[in-house]
Amino acid sequence: MTLLSLLHVEASYGGGRVLNGVSLRLAAGEVVALMGRNGMGKTTTVRAIMGLAPWMRGQIMFAGRDIGQSAPHRIARAGIGLVPEGRHVFANLTVRENLIATARAGRGWSLERVLELLPQLGARYGAMARTLSGGEQQMLAIGRALLTNPSLLILDEATEGLSPKLRDEIYACLAAVRQSGMAVLLIDKHVAALSRLADRTIILEKGRVTWEGTAAELPSDATALSALGL
Ligand SMILES: Nc1ncnc2c1ncn2[C@@H]1O[C@H](COP(=O)(O)OP(=O)(O)O)[C@@H](O)[C@H]1O
Ligand SMILES: [Mg+2]
Questions:
Q1: How far is the CA of 82 from the centre of ligand 2 (A)?
Q2: Residue 229: inside a domain, yes or no?
Q3: Residues having C-beta closer than 5 Å to ion ligand 2
């Protein structure tokens, strides 16, 4: 069953067109990696989905509803959780306060279960978010998104600036999220890890989808990947 679909989505910030007709699909429970070099339109695609693009045209359907013209809070309530690029946790709230700020009872992600998945958060439970390391802040952003109990979790630059060890922890956490049946749209630069985690990869180049395929279809050598726009 299709959970999210974009059809000919165009977007701009007032200057030139940034998305030039993005069409993509994501099934319920599917993990899709959205890849592409810097400036190709990944974050803008996420903004368009979340209702945060300044100008957007085309169709965006989520769980059978047209959300293309919906307000961001309605889109979030419809069941899309976002871990934004740069994390954006509430710096002057504690870990606990960040987690409960947007929590919504639903299909299974309770505070207890999130702390079980991300024990680092329990260890820093009363600390101000601004005192956390980059990795801890990313885990907090993921925990916060999970607690809204979305059916789709979107992570924009999921492991940017993190050490290989922390990256692996994030990937392990996402593997557990995937086990729970949640769909994931994952933006990340680490092709090897993604091809293990994702069912499918979509590559964006200059605001267009230029390649789509399974992990097995993705070439493994750098030259071929570069030719695909990675
Ligand atoms: N707030 C903004 N105002 C104007 N142009 C922007 C803004 N954000 C992004 N852009 C431009 O849109 C294009 C796509 O950016 P973005 O979606 O952030 O790419 P990616 O996430 O793939 O790195 C880039 O050329 C970028 O310069
Ligand atoms: Mg980006």
A1: 13
A2: no
A3: 42-43
Distance (Å, rounded) from C-alpha 212 to C-alpha 73?
30
Ligand 1 mutation pick, 9, 18, 20, max ligand atoms within 8 A of CB: 18
Name the pTM for this structure. Answer: 0.96
| Amino acid letter for position 42 | K
State pLDDT tens for residues 63-111.
Answer: 999 999 999 999 999 999 999 999 899 999 999 999 999 888 776 899 9
202 C-alpha to ligand 2 centroid (Å): 15
Residue 194's domain spans which residues? Answer: 2-214
pLDDT for res 107: 66
- pLDDT tens across 110-124, in order? 999 999 999 999 999
Q: Which domain CATH number covers 109?
A: 3.40.50.300
Say if residues 213 and 187 touch (Cβ distance below 8 Å): no
State whether the beta carbon of 44 lies less than 6 angstroms from ligand 1: yes
41 lines ligand 1 (CB under 6 A): yes
Q: How many domains does the chain have?
A: 1
Residues 121-149: what's their mean pLDDT? 96
